[in-house]
Design goal:
This is ABC transporter ATP-binding protein. Pfam families: ABC_tran (PF00005). Keywords: ATP-binding, Nucleotide-binding, Transport. It comes from Microbispora hainanensis. One of its GO terms (molecular function) is ATP binding. The chain is built from eight helices and ten strands. With 266 residues, the chain is of the alpha/beta class. It has a domain of 153 residues: P-loop containing nucleotide triphosphate hydrolases (Rossmann fold). It has a six-stranded mixed sheet, sandwiched between helices. It has a four-stranded antiparallel sheet with strand order 2-1-4-5, covered by helices on one side. Helix 2 packs across helix 3, helix 2 runs parallel beside helix 4 and helix 3 crosses helix 4. The longest helix is centred in the last third of the chain and has 18 residues. The protein starts with a strand and ends in a 13-residue tail after the last helix.
Length: 266
């Protein structure tokens, strides 16, 4: 595995057995790689296995065949080099925002002072220091999701995984959170892999987009969508490059071919 690669997905297939004993092929021979500090989106139509693939990278599911490596080590279960943010933050209602962020650190057996310091750093990173002592019912949807991101970042993972993290938010909050994610990436340099159904979001945020097609889920293509790091969301959205990349991604999502892209291969 090359030194500049954070995640290496090689020949991953996943077969489930339904309640009638029939095999359901969710993923077949999925292969792609993610560089360190890269933002990669997984997108495609419903049923193409995006969330299953993300769970396999996290170690929450095991592939039927194939292998995932993170930092050169095979994934055999959850580990501290990966953090995950789900669609809904799933916060503990009796805990404050800060205590929710500390939750993942408790499982690692860190001393209380060390846990608190790491949680405070993560809360500051997502801009919620002022709301650290509020409970989930006192937070807006966007604020709750930021607590979920802080909880994942508190363990200082090499790779941040996100499963449609902004899909449950209203349009204005979603756009704000997209900008904040880019700011967090700029400050931390984390490798980020996120699942999204949203074509525009995938093009705006990702350096590359891996498109999956269903029945069974497999990689159809990889599109280079990188903008300059200092480019704002508005500048990206108003650019000719955005319109072209959006068109190309739509072609891939619907199973059509476009020209080959340079970069790490699928």
């Amino acid at each position: 595995m090359s030194d500049d690669l954070a995640v290496d997905v090689q020949g991953v297939s996943k077969v489930f057995v339904d309640d009638k004993g029939r095999e359901v092929h969710a993923l077949r021979d999925v292969t792609f790689q993610v560089r360190r500090s890269e933002i990669v989106a997984l997108t495609g139509r419903s049923g193409c296995g995006k969330t299953t693939l993300l769970r396999i990278i996290m170690g929450l599911e095991h592939p039927t065949s194939g292998m995932v490596k993170v930092d050169g080590d095979p994934v055999r279960g959850c580990g501290p080099n990966r953090g995950i943010v789900f669609q809904n933050a799933e916060l503990l209602p009796w805990r404050t925002a800060l205590a929710n962020v500390e939750f993942g650190l408790e499982a690692r057996g860190l001393p209380k002072a060390e846990r608190r310091a790491a949680a405070e750093r993560a809360i500051e990173l997502v801009g919620l220091t002022h709301a650290a002592n509020r409970r989930p019912h006192e937070l807006s949807g966007g604020m709750r999701q930021r607590v979920g991101i802080a909880r994942a970042l508190a363990i200082d993972p090499a790779v941040l995984l996100m499963d449609e993290p902004f899909s449950a938010l209203d349009a204005q909050t979603r756009e704000k959170m997209q900008g904040e994610l880019l700011e967090i990436h700029e400050r931390t340099g984390k490798t980020i892999i996120f699942v999204s159904h949203d074509i525009d979001e995938s093009v705006l945020l990702a350096d590359r987009v891996v498109t999956l097609v269903p029945d069974p889920g497999r990689v159809h293509g990889v599109l280079d969508t990188a903008f300059g790091r200092s480019t704002s969301l508005d500048e990206r959205r108003d650019s000719a490059e955005f319109a072209q990349r959006r068109h190309e991604l739509l072609q891939l999502v619907h199973g059509r071919e476009i020209r080959q892209q340079d970069g790490v291969s699928a």
